[in-house]
DNA sequence: GCAGGCATAATTGTCGACACCTTGAGAGTG
DNA sequence: CACTCTCAAGGTGTCGACAATTATGCCTGC
């Protein structure tokens, strides 16, 4: 399998084409709620806004559909996805399964060097977290970085593609729009550490189990916020 | 989650647009080896061949990339994927995990009526198989139909999307190009029956286990053929 | 006042043409 | 002979315009 199979998304490569650029901008806009959930996507409007023609814009829309940030109907158009409890549950069911698998594979496939680099990464995150206690953004970035590395460590290109290119933007959207809060931020570090420890011991089964629990806990956290939000409406 | 989230692929809906039509034709051509693995995809060439302009063709190519039938490089172009043992292993690792999950969810989510319909489907397949013993195509279609129904029964839209829209064309490509052969054809029926029985008993764990074994056996079957093929070259 | 149909406006799908990039062949040089 | 550079040819990325479809608002009729 050629290496470029892993570089389909412009997040992992330089944004060489206009379509890539626009994709990144719209992804950010949707994830951060700049384009609100449920809102209509007008192609002529967006094309003007990002100074491109409709051709690269439509290419970008196709990729946005691929990562579940918009939904399209032929001859009708696209809308930004709405966040829901059902959607969250479905998404995290998959995450538990797939990232569990990623852990098992990573425990077999990652090199000692890669594992050492991850340990260094965790140490770095720990120190910055102590300094900026409560600032969720850094925790957010650090958490995603941790998960990314394990997924890449699985060395399974299809698994990497699904998690990194197709599901993670939606995961980020839930987390950014519903906010990460409370004691989970500090507890997540310990869970990361335990998972990495299991991988370092080449104990794939344990890493799998711990990752599933880690993701399940994260889901419950978001689910609570989401249900509160829905009640407020 | 709206219903049309499940109808992104033209396989499950009417091919209303030119892009849909071309997509279906090229999918078939690649899966059946009409466009051979590794061959270059020339946009002007294909556009002439299918009597459309490059705009809908490129839309179709984007979706072909999504289901891993072609690989693209910016400013370079697209090639039909090559089949390999590594690719097969990666693909079936995912299938085991995801279809196992689908079984667990289907055991919870499927209605009694849906389960009865599946039993009727199996009976029908059994009778046609007895008649046309050895004809792999019908078995092929029947097997896919069985897996499709379980996946749909999971009621998880993301899972359905990944398996039915993104991975199954590649699975079909391996099976069609490497051929299904030997005693597996008849044994697969028994395995299907056992899986469905577990689902009917609402025993998700057992269905999960049986499905993983079923897929694993299928993989070993194809792997053998693939390795023989590579040795011949 | 309301339902239904019609015409208009706006949006999406498709087309052909152009600009830029990559690639491969061939000339030139060490 | 090997290596580099140039350049032409083909292909991809992008653009603006047209055709087909859908949404909107008005009008008519009940």
Question: What brief labels describe this structure?
Answer:
Tscrpt_reg_HTH_GntR (chains A, B); three-stranded antiparallel beta sheet; homodimer; Arc Repressor Mutant, subunit A; 3 strands; DNA-binding; Four Helix Bundle (Hemerythrin (Met), subunit A); mainly alpha; globular; 233 residues; disordered N terminus; GntR family transcriptional regulator (chains A, B)
Structural summary, described in words:
The structure is a homodimer of 233-residue chains. By secondary structure, chain A is mainly α. The first copy, chain A, folds into 2 domains: 18-80, Orthogonal Bundle (Arc Repressor Mutant, subunit A); 85-232, GntR ligand-binding domain-like (Four Helix Bundle (Hemerythrin (Met), subunit A), Up-down Bundle), CATH 1.20.120. Chain A is 71% helix and 4% strand. The first copy, chain A, contains 9 helices and 3 strands. Chain A has a 3-stranded antiparallel sheet with strand order 1-3-2. In chain A, strand 2 (70-73) and strand 3 form a beta hairpin. In chain A, helix 1 (18-31) crosses helix 3 (54-66) and helix 4 (85-109) crosses helix 6 (136-153). The first copy, chain A, is globular. The interface between A and B is large, with 40 and 40 residues. Chain A binds a DNA duplex (30 and 30 nucleotides) through residues 17-19, 42-44, 52-56, 58-59, 74-77.
pLDDT averaged residue by residue of chain A: 87
User: What is the global morphology of chain A?
Assistant: globular
CATH class of the largest domain in chain A: Mainly Alpha
Strand content of chain A: under 5%
Strand order of the largest sheet of chain A: 1-3-2
- CATH homologous superfamily heading of the largest domain in chain A: GntR ligand-binding domain-like
Task: Briefly note the structural class of the backbone of chain A.
Answer: mainly alpha
The biggest beta sheet of chain A, please? Answer: 3 strands, antiparallel
Q: What is the CATH topology descriptor of the largest domain in chain A?
A: Four Helix Bundle (Hemerythrin (Met), subunit A)
If classified by CATH, what would the architecture of the largest domain in chain A be?
Answer: Up-down Bundle
Rg over alpha carbons of chain A:
18 Å
User: Helical proportion of chain A?
Assistant: over 70%
Q: Note the run of SSEs of chain A as H and E.
A: HEHHEEHHHHHH
- Count of distinct strands of chain A: 3
| SS element count, helices of chain A | 9
The N- to C-terminal Cα distance of chain A equals 49 Å
Largest interface, per-chain counts? Answer: A-B, 40 and 40 residues
Q: What number of domains of chain A?
A: 2
Oligomer: homodimer
Give the uncertain stretches of chain A in residue-range form.
1-7
Domain HTH gntR-type (chains A, B): 16-83
GO molecular function, one term (chains A, B): DNA binding
Organism (chains A, B): Aliidiomarina taiwanensis
Pfam families (chains A, B): FCD (PF07729), GntR (PF00392)
